[in-house]
Amino acid sequence: MGLDILEEKGVPLERQKFTWREMSGPPFSKLNDDAYTRVRTILMNGIESEALRFSHGCARMNKDLQLPLAKLRRIEQHQQTMVNWLNPPDQSPLETTIGFEQVAIEVTSSVAQSEPDPYLAQVYRFGMLEDFDHLYRYAALMDRVEGRDANDLLQGYTDIRAGRPTSVEHRAPEDELRTAYDRKTAEPLTKLNAGTIVAAEHQTHDFYMTVGPSYPDPIGRMLYAEIASIEEQHVTQYESIIDPNETWLEKWLMHEACEVYNYWSCVQGERNSRIKTIWERFLDYELGHLHFVMELMKKVERRDPKELLPTALPEPIRYESQREFVRKVLASEVDFRAIGTSFGRGRESQATLEYRKTLNADGSPSDLIAEGYRWSPGTELADRVRQEHREGRLQ
Question: Please, are residues 248 and 62 in contact by the beta-carbon 8 Å criterion?
Answer without folding.
Answer: yes
